[in-house]
Amino acid sequence: VYETERMSTLFYSLNSQNHSIKILRTGEHFALGSFSKGKALDLAIDIFNHFNVANYLLEVGGDIVYAGINPKGVAWTVGVQDPNAQEGMTGVLQLKIPTFNSMATSGGYQKYFVDAAGKKHHHILNPKTGKSVRGVQSVTIIANNSTYADALSTSVFVLGVKRGLELVNSLKDVSAIIVDDKGKMFYSND
Questions:
Q1: Is 63 helix (H, G, I), strand (E, B) or coil?
Q2: pTM value surpassing 0.85
């Protein structure tokens, strides 16, 4: 994953068993922008669990954690933003407990600029080229840990549709929705 805050390439490994992140090269560091929203939400879950809060839905910058049911007594429902429309949705998900409780989306459609030639450049960069990743508009990961989902959504974005789905399909209790650069939606097996 390319960290734009520090302009350095960071190599790490995600462990799906204990939801940990291991830095693979010494002397490297995280600029927390890649997964800080997820970590903040996981800390909120710890507080809610401490006070026995059973029903909640929290959102930070598009990342969501949830538990229990909504005020109407049914499962929480959330929309996945259409990367091509400020107000539109690509789909609506009914969130089920207990398998998953976190959802994170990485996309190149909110933080970007258009150069003089009309080419769009967003903040998720290819570590090999240092340029915006092409071929994907958004990746939504649904998992049972928000930090993990947040970091994984960026990683899958960088990997692209084919390799990203291969990774997600190899992981337990993780689902993905990927929207490619043509607006086509792809889903993981789970």
A1: strand
A2: no
